[in-house]
Each structure stands twice: as C-alpha cells, then as structure tokens.
Amino acid sequence: MAFNYYIILLPIFLVLLLTIVGVNKAIPLDIAPVAHPEIDGIRGYLAFFVFLHHSYIWQHYIHTKSWDEPTLNLYNHFGQTSVSLFFCITAFLFTSKILKNTTDFNWGLYLKSRFYRLFPMYFTVTCVIFILIGYYTHMKLNTSIGELISNSTSWIGFTVAGTLDINGFQNSYLMNSGASWTLPYEWMFYFLLPFLALGMGKKVKAKTLLLFLVLLGSTLYINQASIRHFMPFIGGIVVAILLQKNTFSTGLQKPMMNYIAVTLLLLSVCFFDSGRKHIPLIATSLFFLIIASGNSIFGLLSHPLSRKFGQITYSVYLVHGTLLFIIFYGIIGLDRAAQLSQVDYWSIITVSVVPLLFISQLTFKYIELPMMQFLKNKKS
Asked: Which of 50, 80, 134, 208 could be stapled to 275 by a disulfide with Cβ–Cβ 3.0 to 4.6 Å?
C-alpha cells in the first residue's frame, strides 16, 4: 500500500499537541502580553511547518543526495508559504510601529534591539554547527586559514554571504537545513524601514538614511538577493496601512472570515505547487489580513497553548535543521537512513518533535528571554 503523506500528519500533530502541554509543565513560561495575540499564536505553527518541509526534503536528500523542493504541494507550501507569512508578520509589525509613532524614532536603538533579539540565539546554534564541523572534519585544517575564517564569518554574520562550506565539509548548509537564508532578508527589510518611514511622512535624519542605505546596499550586493522574496513584505506593509483605521479591522472580525482564511490557504495548496507565485502570495496576504484583523481561526490561534508555542518560534526555526542533521547524519547515518521504510522514517520525525520542543523551550527561556528582558530594561 502506498505511503500517505497526509495521514502521517495526524500522529505528528497529536505528538505536537501533547509535547506543547508537557513542555510547558516541565519548563513553565508566562504568556507575554502582545497587541496581536492571533499573530503570536500562528508563529509557532509556521516554524513547525518549516520543520515538516525540511523533514520531507531530508528524506529525498538521503536517497538522492540532492536538496530539492518537495514534489507534494502541501509540503512545499509548509516551507514557502510559512516563510512568506513570517515576512508578512515582520513587515506588518514594524510598519505598524512606525505608523503609530508620534515622536522621533530612535533608529540607533532600533538596530541594536534587532541585533540583541536575533543574534544570541543564532550565534548559539552557529556555535553548535562549528562544533559539529570540527567533529566531522576530525579537528584538522582542510582549507587555508583565510578561507576558514572567511566562511565561518559568513555564518556568524547571519549567512549574508551564503551558507559557505566550512573547513572543507561539503554541503555545510545541511547542518541547519539552509533555514538561515531568510535572516538576511529580515535584515534588509530592517534597513529599508527608514525609507519607508520617510515615505509615510515621518522625519528621518539624512545621516540615518545614508547609514541605512550603505547597510542595505552592502547586504544586497553580498547576498545577491532575489526581488521576489521581498514581495511578502509588501503584503505586510499594505495590511498595516489598511488596519491603521480600527473601523477596517472591526469590519473583518466576523466568524465567516475564519472560513474564508482557511479556504484561501486550501486553494493555494490545491492549485499551486509553489507559495512564491503571484496568486498564492496574494492569497497569503489576504489570509494574513484576516488574521491580523483579530480572527483566530475558530479560537485556535488565541488559545493559550498556541500562544505559548508561538513564543518559542525563533528557537524552533533555528534548532530544527541542526536537530535533523544530528539525527540522520550523525546518529543514524545516511546509509542506514536510506534503508528506512517510509513508516520508520516518519516515525522518527514524529518522535523528534519531543526533543525539538524541549530544546527550543530551554533556549527560549535561558537565551532569548533574558535578552528580551535586557532590551526592555534598556528601553525603559
């Protein structure tokens, strides 16, 4: 009987639910108050969908040694549409902040706060990757010192220059499933923000614009960024502008909108093999508009468990790729993994949900949360 990639999601999501409950009992966290709880509630699921996306790709890689997009629409959208929604969220939150700001925006503090928020957890995972590189290259120098320093620096710098191979370890991107490619785009949007503020009639000093222009131009040049990846940011900006007036968001807060939101995603998955095409991107933006207006998909996104899961989003996003590498390259080995049946492989993925969430809860509590508190104290 043919393996069903859709049925296997039932036990995976059951384990996810049980693990969210268990991890919050073992490592309790308070739910932080936020302006948009529905957005907070969806973020954890988006990161988890990216985990499923890469789990599918890993299975293909084990057999073909080729890192390709999933052939099943759903699993491709798990990655691409989830990332599009992440970009929408970023653009929405920061555009909304600019629209609501009535005083001079502190751009220096803004940059520092973004760095302190993103770098500590990212650097922690990168250090784990460096340790793995050292282990699998037997602590021997396999390239020139200059190349080792240069490529390692690229990884430390949010992989702006790409996930370059470190110390001769081929396909080093496997160690985080290449997930860090989104971070340079996040930074490029941050660098664009003063110009967006200027376009909205806010005062921005010339030296600030010059600094951010240099940062943006340098990052664009080094990263060789693709314009198409900026499209979801536009969706988030538009949503922020539309929802600036409460009357608009109030008009969308209807039970029927939950059905429309789900239908938009289902149509994208059913009729498009990629979440990066124009119509799926429009559908994603409309879906986000409905969520940002306060619709919680029948209460799912505003549920305390979803909110708690959403808090550890960044850790889940960064940790999952390294966990998959350790499991299939390190513990099982690629040759043995290639002999696994479909049921065996996806059973391992199901079980791996448990350590993924426990590790992410720990790293959030002891790495991310202290830095968030530090930033809060710094601003006050």
From this structure: 80
Cα separation, 222 vs 333, in Å, equals: 34
**Identity of the residue numbered 265:** L
Size of the chain, expressed as the number of residues it contains: 380
Torsion angle of C-alpha atoms 369, 290, 111, 103, degrees rounded to 10:
-110
Give the rounded distance of the alpha carbon of 222 from its chain centre.
21
Task: Provide the angle, in degrees to the nearest 10, between the axes of the packed helices 278-292 and 231-242.
Answer: 30
Q: Are 157 and 126 in contact (CB under 8 A)?
A: no
| Tokens found for residue 363 | 């790293």
Nearest CA to 317 among 114, 37, 50, 125?
50
Closest CA to 175 of 185, 184, 183, 165: 165
* Residue 373 pLDDT level (bands cut at 50, 70, 90): confident
Phi, psi of 169 (to 5 degrees): -80, 110
* Three-state secondary structure readout of 240-286: HHHCCCHHHHHHHCCHHHHHHHHHHHHHHHHHCCCCCCHHHHHHHHH
Angle, CA of 82, 170 and 357, to the nearest 5°:
40
Judge whether 121 and 368 are in contact, CB under 8 Å.
Answer: yes
Q: Are 301 and 38 in contact (CB under 8 A)?
A: yes
Sign of the CA dihedral running 233, 239, 241, 244: negative
> In whole angstroms, what is the distance from residue 64 CA to residue 68 CA?
10
Is the four-CA dihedral 290, 293, 299, 303 of positive or negative sign?
positive
Confidence of residue 247 (pLDDT cuts 50, 70, 90): low
Backbone angles phi, psi at 166, to 5 degrees: -105, 130
How much is the CA Rg of the chain, to the nearest whole Å? 21
Of the candidates 183, 294, 371, which has an alpha carbon nearest to the alpha carbon of residue 379?
A: 371
| pLDDT bucket at 234, cuts 50 / 70 / 90 | very high
Around Cβ 162, how many Cβ atoms within 10 Å? 17
Which tens digit of pLDDT belongs to each residue from 70-126?
999 999 999 999 999 999 999 999 999 999 887 778 999 999 999 999 999 999 999
